Structure formats: C-alpha cells, structure tokens
Amino acid sequence: MTLGSSMPDERVVRGGGGGETASRERSVAVAVEETCCACVQLVVGPPNPMMARYVYAFVFLATNLLAWTLRDFGHPVLAELRRLRGCQGASYCLGAEGVLRVSLGCFLFFFVMFLSTVRTRKVHDRRNSWHSEWWPAKIVLWMGFTVVPFFLPSALIQLYGKVAHFGAGAFLVIQLVSITRFITWLNDCCRSEANLKRCHMQVQVVSIAAYVGSILGVVLMYVWYAPRPTCKLNILFITVTLVLVQLMSGVSLSSKVKAGYLAPGLMGVYIVFLCWTAIRSEPHTEICNKKAEVATSADWVNITSFVIAVIVIVTATFATGIDSKCFEFKKAEAEQPEDDDIPYGFGFFHFVFAMGAMYFAMLFVGWNAQQTMEKWTIDVGWASTWVRVVNEWLAAIVYIWMVIAPIVWKGRQVGSSPECT
C-alpha cells in the first residue's frame, strides 16, 4: 500500500477517535444537565417528598459531622464559652457540651418539623409543600437552631443531656421494632403461597447461612473477648446471646408457632451483632478486650470504624424514619392506599430524626457527659456497653412476642406485618 493510499485510513482512524471523544463529551454534558435539572426541580419544582427525605438525611449528616468536629477539634473555640459552663474549667466538659449543644439544635429543628407536619395525610395538603419545599427558609431555621444553644446556660444543657438518655432509648426501641418487623415481614413474604415454591431453596440457603454465621460469631467472640475464665462479664454477655439464639429458634420452630427458619436465623445474626458492638464498646483499658487493644494501636482502624459508625447512624435513622407503617394498627394497615396519599408519614419521619439527634449525642459522649472521649472514637464506655446489651435482650424479647402474640391473643394479629405484594 502506498503512502497516499494510507492517508484516508489515517483520517478515518482520527475521525473515529474524535467521534468517541465527542460521544463521551455529550454523555458528560447530558449527565450534568440531568443533575442540574434535578437540583432545580428540588428547589423550584413541585413538592417531591421522596427527594426531600435525602435532603433531611444530608442535614442530619452535616450535624453529626459538626458535633464530631467540636468534640475532637473545637476546644479552642469552646473555651471561649467558659462563662456559660458549669464544669469549673474541666477540659473534658468542653467536648461533651459542644456535642450536646449541637444535638439540642438538631433536636429542636426536627421537633419543630414534627409538630408542623404531624398527621399529614394527602399530597395536596399545604404541609406537604412545607415538608418538601421551602429549603432556603428551613436551612436558615436549622442554622438558627444550631447557634441558639451556644448561648444557653450550662445547667440547661446538662438537663438536656439527661433528657437525651430517654430520647436515645426511645430511638433504639423504635429502631429495633422496625428491624424486627422487617425481618418478620420478609419471612411472611417468603412463606406466602405465591413465593413458597419459588423461593424455597433460597430461603433454606439464607436460613442455614444465617444460623451458622450466628454460631460462628458466638465462637469468635469467645475466642476474642473471653480468652480466660476471669473475663466473667464477657462470658455472661456471650452466653446469654447464645441462649437467646437457641430460644428464638426453638420458639419459631415450635409446633404452635411454625414461623419457619428464616426469621430466627436473621434475628440471630442481628443480636450477635448487637452483642459484638456491646463488647466493642467496653473501655479500651479492659484486659479482656484484645481487639480493642489492637484497634488503639492502629489509627486507621479507629478512623475507618468511626466513619462507618457515622454512616450507620445516618442510614439507620433514615431507614427507620420512613418505616412509619411498623407502628400502625391493623385497621390502618388494612385500608387501601389512595393515589393522593403521602408516601410515608412526615410526622413520624421527623420524630425519628429528633430522637436520632439525641441518640448521636449519646454515642459521641459515650452515654456519659462527664467522661473524656478519645479522638476518632464513638460509643465507648461501660454505659454504652450496657445500653447495647439491654437493647440486644429487648430485641430478642420483642421478636419472641411478635411470633407468639397471635397465639396468646387467640388469633388476634397484634402488630401484624403488612401484606406482601
């Protein structure tokens, strides 16, 4: 082939490369345009409650990050508020009070949103517009509520810290009921006539894997956190967890209940996870907590665990907030949804976030505003450990009650799961 004959081929190759580049540029331009349109629609478009929930979650995340920043790096700033404090110059009070003040502002914001949107039923209600729009006004409101607590006296902040214990406890109860209801709902769906044959093999595999995973988790906790007979408290926690796993399985598989294998398997994984987090919350000086000693020797482990924990807090609050149906009664659940019904309960959504504000405050101060928290740590201390242990035991009790309640009440579906569609 001559040089002249090769020139068209080269132009074709160049043209083809230019076409690919132009195609990529057009794809990027379309993606940017769609993103901009979504943002504009969120601000000036019609009310979109499904999109609004993500904005509230972002606000909640920003508040968590602000509280953490003040706790770990805000001592120079918080020292200027010494005249407002009542801890007589103790340095450990600075970070805890900063967290509580930010938490109080977040709580006030979402509680006001709760009061202004509770019992909203239809999308044409004006409160739907308030929930899903008016973002500039709500951002200003959130910023105002965030700033105001820093001008309140320390005694009032300490009182809020005591109240936050109950609010955080309420959040944990709501969360565990939501998770337990989801597991029982999933179990009912898989065991329904429409899905029983189609999902039989998958259900068996998941159930066996969950049960084996639960037992394996218990064994690993014995190895990691109870290496010697003197670790009596950890042995107690792990042994009670093992008993609860067996008890839930026995009740679910009894001849009267017949709840199947899936629900107790998943609940077993859940309470083993709660037991693990409880033991991980023990102080790092605890001699039986060998994993905690390893974590303190590697900063990246602490940082990674902290980031994951913050994401879990926001995700758990978000997922629980949109699950308002788990607290509806049978009559309300039996009603067929209409086209103009709101997709989730706005009031319940904001109430959960308000309780979540108290919950993240307790995690950042270890459920004790009078203790020092290390940097990049979250939910560490004996108070945190016992809260998680009680939460684990309560989760098992709630599950057992849910599966035996219809029998106790002779067929009355107390807290029955929504129909699987």
TrEMBL record:
It is found in: Membrane. Its main location: membrane. It is a multi-pass membrane protein. One of its GO terms (cellular component) is membrane. The chain crosses the membrane at residues 51-70, 91-115, 135-156, 203-226, 233-253, 259-279, 300-322, 342-365, 386-409. The keyword Transmembrane helix applies. Pfam families: Serinc. InterPro entries: TDE1/TMS. Belongs to the TDE1 family. This is Serine incorporator.
